[in-house]
Automatic annotation (TrEMBL):
Residues 279-336 form the CBS domain. GO terms for molecular function: ABC-type quaternary ammonium compound transporting activity; ATP binding; ATP hydrolysis activity. Belongs to the ABC transporter superfamily. Its EC number is 7.6.2.9. SUPFAM superfamilies: CBS-domain pair (SSF54631), P-loop containing nucleoside triphosphate hydrolases (SSF52540). CDD domains: ABC_Pro_Gly_Betaine. The complex is probably composed of two ATP-binding proteins, two transmembrane proteins and a solute-binding protein. It is an enzyme of class 7 (translocase). It comes from the Bacteria. It is a peripheral membrane protein. It is found in: Cell inner membrane. This is Quaternary amine transport ATP-binding protein.
Length: 398
């Protein structure tokens, strides 16, 4: 279910934007509009949905329009044209009073710069938004304390900002946003000012919090690794326009154009792809009905030296090897069950590709990908991992 629905949202910076809007409708470029009108396109007819409870990442290079877009979502910047529906209400048409109510109760923002008051304690900083709402002192202290505990800062209530590290200060900013218990968190380059190790810790913190909070999060970044790490879906922007929206796997495997392709070409795919992305359809035999001759013929036809055995429900039984089955045929044996080896490497579809490296390096047979009730879904072979790492197309089990 969509929490936020954006339709044909545009922002033109400058006076008398009508001619520029008309040029946008004609699909004229940002540079053409600037040259002919002197106006700057911030956002170009953006249309997208943000689902309730998802982490929706908006990314792009400097000047792509991502930060302008997030400020349009809470009307820190007023749109030139288009709609922003929040739970069915159009933010673009709200008066100041209604908009302030949304900002107080439904939507909070976390900025790149922490924006903490140096002469207020950490608790007082987190209380600030509740204070200006007029909340009673005991209640706002309770909420602020709970928010600090949520981000791992219990015990730091009486410290001052300059006594905390950069990562801890950013946690204070996050706690301040959470104190209102908003439905939506808007996070604009929230971690980009942090050192790499602290930044990764904050990404982990956000993902851990999201498991319990289940907020709708719109996260702005210019860092693709960060986007791939935390995003349920990613929207890539260029010159104010949306280029592609998709899951991390969609973006990596099917880039929409050369711009996106350049974005993803240096990404460590092993941290994004899962077994499901690289598994192939396996050759199998039914151990309940297929005999030794059928098994041997199927291996010869497929030019493979081993084959996985399943039952009628496609539950994995194990694996048999061509040499063993050839010996069974030579001895005029039909039943393959005595030759089934049950000690085979398995994984779930969600296992990240980098975790498959050790399995494939120590196994002489493909990795069996199993689902619910041990059903065989596919297999992972070493060549598929190498193909995925090189950025080549991989075969997906449908």
């Amino acid at each position: 279910m969509a929490k936020i629905e954006v339709r044909n949202l545009s922002k033109i910076f400058g006076k008398r934007p009508k001619p520029a809007l008309e040029m946008l409708r004609e699909k004229r470029s940002k540079d053409e509009i600037l040259k002919e009108t002197g106006l700057t396109v911030g956002v170009n007819r953006a249309t997208f949905d943000v689902e309730e409870g998802e982490v929706f990442v908006i990314m792009g290079l400097s000047g792509s329009g991502k930060s302008t877009l997030v400020r349009l979502l809470n009307r820190l910047i007023d749109p030139t044209d288009g709609q922003i529906q929040l739970d069915g209400d159009d933010l673009a048409k709200m008066d100041k009073q209604a908009l302030n109510e949304v900002r107080r109760k439904k939507m909070s923002m976390v900025f790149q710069k922490f924006g903490l008051f140096p002469f207020r304690t950490i608790l007082q900083n987190v209380e600030y938004g509740l204070e200006i709402q007029g909340m009673e002192k005991a209640e706002r202290k309770k909420k602020a304390t709970e928010s600090l505990a949520l981000v791992g800062l219990k015990g730091y209530e009486d410290q001052y900002p300059d006594q905390l590290s950069g990562g801890m200060q950013q946690r204070v900013g996050l706690a301040r946003a959470l104190a209102n218990d908003p439905d939506i968190l808007l996070m604009d380059e929230a971690f980009s000012a942090l050192d790499p190790l602290i930044r990764k810790d904050m990404q982990d913190e956000l993902l851990d919090l999201q498991v319990t909070m289940q907020k709708t999060i719109v996260f702005i970044t210019h860092d693709l690794d960060e986007a791939l790490r935390i995003g349920d879906r990613i929207m890539i922007m260029k010159d104010g326009a949306i280029v592609q929206i998709g899951t991390p796997e969609d973006i990596l495997m099917n880039p929409a154009d050369e711009y996106v392709r350049r974005f993803v070409e240096d990404v460590d795919r092993s941290k994004v792809y899962t077994a499901e992305n690289i598994m192939i359809r396996p050759e199998t035999i039914n151990g309940e009905k297929d005999g030794a001759r059928v098994a041997l013929k199927r291996m010869r036809d497929a030019n493979i030296s081993s084959i996985y055995v399943v039952n009628r429900s496609r539950q994995l039984q194990g694996i048999v090897h061509a040499a063993d089955i050839a010996e069974a045929v030579k001895n005029d044996e039909r039943d393959i069950r005595p030759y089934i080896q049950t000690d085979v490497p398995t994984c779930e579809k969600t296992m990240p590709m980098h975790d498959l490296f050790d399995l494939t390096s120590t196994s002489s047979v493909p990795i069996a990908v199993v689902g619910e009730n041990n059903k065989l879904e596919g297999i992972v072979i070493r060549s598929q991992i190498l193909a995925a790492l090189s950025g080549k197309e991989v075969n997906i089990v449908e």
